[in-house]
Amino acid sequence: MENNNAFEVALSLLLNLDASLFQIVALSLQVSILAVLIAAVLGFPLGAAVALWRFPGRGGLIVVLNALMGLPPVVAGLMVYLLLSRAGPLGDWGLLFTPSAMIVAQVVLVLPILAALSRQKVEELLGEYREQFVSLGMSRLRMMPTLLWDARFALLTILLAGFGRASAEVGAVMMVGGNIEGVTRVMTTSIVLETGKGNLPLALGLGIVLLTLVMLVNAGVYWVGELTRRRTG
What we know:
Blueprint: H1 2-15, H2 19-52, H3 58-68, H4 73-84, H5 99-136, H6 140-150, H7 152-167, H8 171-177, H9 187-197, H10 200-232
């Protein structure tokens, strides 16, 4: 009965557009979207460069990128914490326990995913188009934007997967953000905190929003995949 009441209150918070709940949701989206965009700007060209160029240590770099796709969030959080703490090299910037620190942590988590998966896709396309590129006398640098553009639908799927990873993250953002009310409290950290406090309605409300967001991301991935198959079918 108590859980039913909590669920009803959670729905009421959503329907009434509770200010505190949607402030948390807004910050969560802001942090995750910015982190994924930064990771894309860095990760997609990196993945394409690894696919196009041959250099000493390339195989090791590919192994590292693939391994970092499964980087534990708490390890990423620890790395960023040490980097941004007062004793760290970027401590003077005062970013620790701010949304900026949370964005950095999510970039560290998402960038290897975007770089590794885009490298695979670009390398696949390079195998298909290599003869055409050679006949046109194109340099590798000129090939990069062409291949990335041709892979845009696949890259969008990868981008959505990265956003799903970022938006569902809790360990790293709690370590570097501090879960400060009104400043660095996002959906995942709030759910953990409010459940521990026994505030189930708010935790459930945020859980519903987060679950809806995950479903929308997966629907987007499916839709982009179907669009890609129709184009290539």
